Amino acid sequence: MGFEALLGAVAEVASGGSILFLLAGVFLGLCFGVIPGLGGTTALALLIPVTFGMDSLDAMYLAGGVMGATSFGGSITAILLNTPGTAPNAATTFDGYPLAQQGKAGLAIGAAACASSMGGLIGLVTLIIFIPLAKEIVLSFGPAEFFLLTVLGLAAIAVSVRGKLLRGLIAGGVGLIIAFIGADTITGDLRFTGGINYLWDGVPLVPALTGMFAISQMIELALKGGTVATSSGQDEAANMKISGVGEGVLSVFKNWGVLLRGSVIGTLIGAIPGLGGTVASFLAYSSTVQTDKDPESYGKGNIRGVIAPESANNAKDGGSLIPTVAFGIPGSAETALFLGILVLHGIDPGPTILLYHEREIYGLIVAITFAAVAASLIGLVLSRFLVLITRIDVGIVVPVVVAISLTGVYVLDGRMADVLLTVIMGVIGYLMIRFDYPRLTLVIALVLGETAERSFHQVQLISDGQPLGFMMTRGISVLLIAAIIITFFLPIARKLFQKKSAA
Amino acid sequence: MMNKFCAGIAALGVLSAGMALAEFPEDKPVKFVVPYSAGGGFDTIVRTFAPAVEETLGATVVPENIKGASGTRGGQAVARSKPDGYTIGIYNIPGLTVSQTLGRDLGFSLDDVSWIANLAQSKYGIAVKGDSPVNTIEDLCNLGHAIKLSDTGKDTTSSITSVIAFNIIGCDIVNVTGYSGSNDTMIAVMRGEVDATLKPISSLAKYTATDDLKLIVTFTDDTVVEGVQNTTELGFPTLAKFGLNRVVGGPPNMPADVIETLAAGFKDAVASPAIVEWAAGTSTDLSFMDAAETKAMMDELSEFYLQYKDLLQ
Amino acid sequence: MSDESGLETPGSVKSIWPAVVILGFAAAIYIVAQGYSETARRFPSMVAISLMVLGAIDLYSRTGLPGRDAVNAFWGSGFDRREMVKVPPLGKELALFAWIAAAFLGMAIFGILIAAPLFVFLYVWRRSGRSVVMAFAAGFIVFAFEYAVFEWALDYTLYRGLILNGEGFSAW
């Protein structure tokens, strides 16, 4: 039944003017994804008033185009400038940026484009297969699973930061504390706000991320000078391969196991509303590293380190629709805005959404998948030019990125205070680079912190004060606990073992 | 853009038809402040009303999202504006009323707001899991443990209502807060981790229609859903006073004639076919009150919640 | 300890001070958290205590005390593979912070549409030392992009600055 509706939706997209809206969405999404500070959420928020006068299906194609295209746009800057567009893109920086520094940005972009469109397609197929089970999937994830998922995400990131476990954990702790700022979701108490009204709602994520990723990276680049791709001096720069794109595309098929695992993790974990996407891409990365014969080669420009998170990244878009088709609830910030667009068009999202609005939902699924593939193709075509960014003098790249990302932060909510926060976070982020504390763990802890705290509190209340016993009776919780133990302790055990055998 | 153009034509039509309008509204656009981000419940109602009010009022209405500080930042922005009718806002009532009653600093005073109209009001109901053996509020109280209820935050209207209502009914509750949206609180009931949830009847309707949830009581004076008891017939008439209101107001000291013009515009908008159709599709309960009625309701609400101050603190 | 490129780790990076700052921060958070209600202080206190423990290990690994190498090997707290290999002089760092701060202040005072291109122009011209023509081109591209995408295509009003906005800080 699902595939019939899917075919109908494909036919509908292919006919008439809908494709124009979709392409407009793809273009906008790619544009907003590439620019630090702007992202899918900002694009959709700005589109809400624009779509008001449109036909509901056209509005949806536009939104679907944006949603499918932004994540690849964010990966491009993750690779080229070490500034991921959104938290889920961050895992791509581990190996993508070292590749760009070595002058192999083409290879990385080729692999990323191919992995993300393949991931998108795999995600689509998985989504269609699982639609009949959507309700059961959503109902099996309660506060206990959410709490464990945040722990799993933190464990995956802590072991991923290039062997800097200690300072990674410290940065994570600071990130958690930043996440506690504002009105406590449980008690309503104001915490660590210092009497500043702005902080009541907590530290907003987009400005914090933009400061941490974009601004701090620009400060570092400006102080370093030269161009991004300068690891080994001037002489080699002339020999650097600007192509390698085709090789990158091929590498995905050579490493199909990595692709498949990434896509499956992306769809399964991505289905969990709220933070699935972020956890998924880091878990895809860390599991690839840990199952590889040579974990030491990661973080220095291993192409598999690009394929894994990228495939998870686009597969999650399919997964994030599972809560939407099941209950009409959002599975990500983007789907929340998408549902807002539906409400504006007089459609009330709820458990019957798939029953009564099959056209819209399948139209969106097709639009997102189409957009993911189209964005990758556009990315591939443009990659030759995009790669040039790594060879432009940072004296020009830095001010342009700073100016536009600060503008982007303002646009999201129209608050100058957000811009100020971005600047402050940028300086903190730079100090972290300078003193060798990984920024990524701080950011991911900031993203996951609030959920971790409130779901733990909920587990405590619903389990009548016996959280551990409660979790042990739930199958998925037990699986997650096992995953946490494997993720966190396997690398440590391996390290201890290696040392013994070396000695 | 097309919208504005059409509204402009409509406005011209209204003017040329000779309808006598006072100085307000001139050709300046009216800013309609939404204290939450785009896409939420308050944003939706404002954006849906804007074109309807443009027609009835004959002025361009521009929604503006000023979110932050639990919805108080938008209210502050309105309070600081000139009371000329070109800046109005929508307010979360009684959420703000309770905060003010409890002595929280909103950054502005609700008592000074020039109330214009009440657009919609939702009444509450309590729902349990669809296949639960619990059928009445009495069954719920006799579960043998404190009733676990799911909610978003401690300060939300529904949470406050739960605390007061179950105090009046006389049952112990544990409020499991922290769910990220009202949909999540209802799904928590379906998952079975909590016993019940108290939410606007219109929100619950989505899930009771599919038998995922079962409504056991409504906080109303009359029977609104066939076969479901209401609190008044159960002997708790006070509970029917609880509700969630979408209220429009403006800066302090707005001239009476401007308030009247705006209120008339909203009144006609509420009755317009476009709004009625939209409300039916999204189970929104339209309920228009003019300026005087709204003001009276606001005063009544602050008095009502004041008596429960100790319970809520 | 030297990293891959053979450069010595700068003294400021491997000194004890970053760890001391972390310890101080964690202690401050712990103390402030004790003023909150029981539920509200539980998580912050837990994190602050963990942070103090981790900070102490960080501090220990930075001293010359015995067992330091074992700690570094286990926790990965050495300084090989640093993200930023060379540490720039303090004056240069402060000057760059000033540039970014100026960009923000410009946006706050004169509005984004004026200050963003102006910042790009001045930065490319004065700090990067490029030609005026190139600086102007970079500034113009930023202006054209911001105007075309936000003001024109999406019908969005970018911040006009404290001078023109007239609402003062309340509009922040």
Structure characteristics:
heterotrimer; B: 313 residues; alpha/beta; six-stranded mixed β-sheet; 12 strands; C: 172 residues
Mean pLDDT over all positions of chain C: 86
Please report the distance between the alpha carbons of the first and last residues of chain B.
Answer: 48 Å
What order do the SSEs of chain C take from the amino end to the carboxyl end, as H and E?
Answer: HHHHHHHH
Backbone structural class of chain C: mainly alpha
Structural class of chain B: alpha/beta
In a nutshell, what does this entry contain?
The complex is a heterotrimer of chains A (503), B (313) and C (172). Chain A has 503 residues and is mainly alpha-helical.
Describe the structure.
- The complex is a heterotrimer of chains A (503), B (313) and C (172).
- Chain A is globular and about 60 Å long.
- In chain A, helix 4 runs antiparallel to helix 15 and helix 4 (56-81) packs antiparallel against helix 17 (333-344).
- With 503 residues, chain A is mainly α.
- The model of chain A is unreliable at 231-239 (pLDDT under 50).
- Chain A contains 24 helices and two strands.
- Chain B has helices at residues 2-16, 41-57, 72-80, 95-101, 137-141, 157-169, 182-191, 201-208, 256-271, 273-281, 291-306, 309-312, and strands at residues 30-34, 61-65, 87-93, 114-122, 124-129, 147-150, 173-176, 196-200, 213-218, 229-230, 244-250, 286-289.
- Chain B has a six-stranded mixed sheet with strand order 2-1-3-11-4-12, with helices on both faces. Chain B has a four-stranded mixed sheet with strand order 8-5-9-10. In chain B, strands 6-7 form a two-stranded parallel sheet.
- In chain B, strand 6, helix 6 and strand 7 (173-176) form a beta-alpha-beta unit.
- Chain B is 41% helix and 20% strand.
- Chain C is mainly α and 172 residues long.
- The longest helix of chain C is centred in the N-terminal third of the chain and has 25 residues, at 38-62.
- Chain C is flat.
- Chains in contact: A-B, A-C, B-C.
- Chains A and C meet through helix 3, helix 9, helix 10, helix 20 and helix 21 of A and helix 2, helix 3, helix 4, helix 5 and helix 6 of C.
